[in-house]
Amino acid sequence: MNPFCVAECEYEFFDLSQGEVIESGTFNLTSIFSKTKIYTLNKSNVDLGSQVLNQFKLVCKGKKTPLCFTKEKEHKRTVLITLNNLLTNEEKVLLENYKEKIVSLRETSYLSRKIFEELKLNTAFVENYFLVKDYPVNFLEKKLFELEKYYFNLQELWNLQDLELLQVQVPAWEEETFSFYSTVEKYNKNLSLNFLLYNNLTEKIRISQQILEEIKSKPLQENLCFNLNKTILEFNNVVSNFNGKTYLSLKEEIIKKIYKQISMLSELVKEGEGEALCKTINLSEINYTTIFYSVIDKSIPRIILNEPFFYCCYLGECKRCCDSSCSDKYYPIIFLHGHSINGNLPADYSFDSFMEIKNNLSKEGYIDAGEFILSMEEESGFLGRINVPIMVTASYFFDSYKTDAGETISVSSKLDGIDTYAIRLRDLINSVKERTGKNKVIVIAHSMGGIVTRRYVQIFGGEDLEKIILICVPNHGISDKVKDYCAFLGSKTACNDMDEEGILINHLNNDETDSVEIHNIIGIGCDMEEETGDGIVKNSSQFLNYAQNYYIKGSCNEINFEFFHETILSPLFYPETYERIKKIL
User: Is residue 116 within 8 Å of residue 146, measured between CB atoms?
Assistant: First the structure.
């Protein structure tokens, strides 16, 4: 930058997620004094699993003065800043462990419900036969309801991936659940044992009656006859009391007593049989049925804890974040520049060629992710979580390499050939796919960028490309004076590759290539040696017989070095170019 020049700059820091301007302003920039601005973004303010998008835009143009000559052309740089609150591998393991515990505890609560319902059913049933105690059914039902309600709270914490609260509440629920399960299981077991006890007692009554009937059939001495009638009276009284609704423990006590008494009488009768039958009292009739503990045939449902999903916001509207299901929607756009117009300018000046078109697309809902350089390393899919198309400006003038220490270094080179640029484009496409999580990209290429793109397809195939939009591309090469000053402005190697008589152009147009949807915008209107064109590339060189060709007419001013080849990218002067691109997209 000329030390006598001052650049007037405007900046804006924008929250894309909420659609709010965080800060904006203006400042002047010189080659002597730099500007620094620090923003602090706090990850803790971002919900787990979600993403906040921030965009920093800077537009500068030189100010014309007597000591500074400049066309006052604007230069814009955009940086998309993503703030992701993602789980670490350790946190993912912990959450998976809690997921298994929640599922297991829910299964236990279902089993507890089944056991409780059995307890409640059988408790009501046995009230017709005996009284039970120590079964607080109402309390247990209330407690069970609370535990089942608590499960849905844990499920919500799982959906939110709230590891901090899960670490506290899962162990607490685990303790409560197993404590309740142990309680109802113990009550249920005790009640089922009471069923067995009741059936055993009724069986003893039947045996006691059979023994008394047997004794009555024998001749007895007078004293034994007296004891028999007394025992029968007591037995009949026991039978009468047994039918009453008393506690089973009391029933058991009197049954044991009468059974013991009858057994002792039976032993005495064996030793003291008489000569005459005893006149006895009638035995009470008994009609007991065996009672069975009811088991509820209710299977435990399969518990599935769905994987949580997160919401991502764009301009205040929040939708479910994209996953692999979004891979075939809203393909990212790569804008690819042409040949450098001045070999002395820094390589990143090439990013400016599509600036105005990107500005207009931003108003249509496309997210400008800025300038794309291979040295940036980000997590896979981080640019594809918002279900909105992403666009980037990329350059094949940049490459990167890793040092022995593992550091990625970015370098620029404008002196290489088309094949080298095609290899870099492959890396760019792969990187954009990786960062957006998409399986294809769209390439919009201007001038030599179109040659690079076509060569990429010829070498690597077109399966990664959804479509290609070419603008003023020398598809059949450059010739005449354009070929002469091409090397003066930029890479001699690339210019030789684009020579209409060169080997690369010959291969590009005669060798077999993959079938990719290609839209070819041709600039005409400037006289070029008895043929129309865009002032740099002739119509005949731009035309592709296997592409969808579109013609846009413009004008050139060679005296001021203003060519339609460049101005065709300006929506201000040629809105039909932008409208055509938008329609194709």
Answer: no
Q: Is 370 left (phi over 0), alpha (psi -120 to 50) or beta?
A: left
Taking a C-beta distance cutoff of 8 angstroms, is the pair 194, 292 a contact? no
Higher pLDDT, 148 or 550: 550
Using pLDDT thresholds of 50, 70 and 90, give the confidence band for residue 377.
Answer: low
Q: Which two tokens stand for residue 166?
A: 């899960």
Structure confidence by residue, pLDDT tens digits, 512-542 = 667 899 999 999 999 998 899 999 999 999 9
Q: In whole angstroms, what is the distance from residue 523 CA to residue 535 CA?
A: 9
Q: Is the dihedral of CA 155, 161, 164, 167 positive or negative?
A: positive
| Beta strand pairing call for 408-412 and 398-402 | antiparallel
Nearest-angstrom CA–CA distance, 488 and 492: 8
**CA gap 425, 462 in Å, rounded:** 12
Q: Is the pLDDT of residue 460 over 80?
A: yes
Nearest to 149 by CA among 86, 212, 106, 191: 106
- Determine the Cα–Cα distance for residues 426 and 317; give it in Å rounded to an integer: 34
46-50, 57-61, 374-378, 509-513: which range is least confident on average? 374-378
Q: What is the dihedral of CA 106, 112, 117, 119, to 10 degrees?
A: 180
Q: What angle do CA 563, 399, 72 make, to 5 degrees?
A: 35
**Tokens representing 444?**
């919009």
- The answer to whether residues 468 and 518 touch, using CB atoms and an 8 Å cutoff, is yes
CA 307 – CA 542 distance, rounded (Å): 52
DSSP 478: B
If 0-12 CB within 10 Å is exposed, 13-18 middle and 19+ buried, where does residue 94 land?
Answer: middle
Angle, to 10 degrees, between the axis of helix 89-126 and the axis of helix 163-216?
30
Residue 94 identity (one-letter amino acid): L
Distance CA 487, CA 469 (A): 26
What residues does CATH 3.40.50.1820 cover in the chain?
A: 329-584
Q: Which residue has the tokens 């060169």?
A: 502
Q: Per-residue pLDDT tens for 541-563?
A: 999 999 999 999 999 998 888 89
Residues 371 and 104: their CA atoms lie apart, in Å, by 49
Using CA atoms, how far residue 315 sits from 15, 103, 319, 320, 524, in Å, is 8, 37, 11, 14, 40
Residue 212: is its pLDDT beyond 90?
yes
Task: With beta carbons less than 8 A apart as the criterion, state whether 478 and 500 touch.
Answer: yes
Both tokens of 438, joined, read 């998409």
pTM attached to this predicted model: 0.73
Domain 329-584 has CATH 3.40.30.10: no
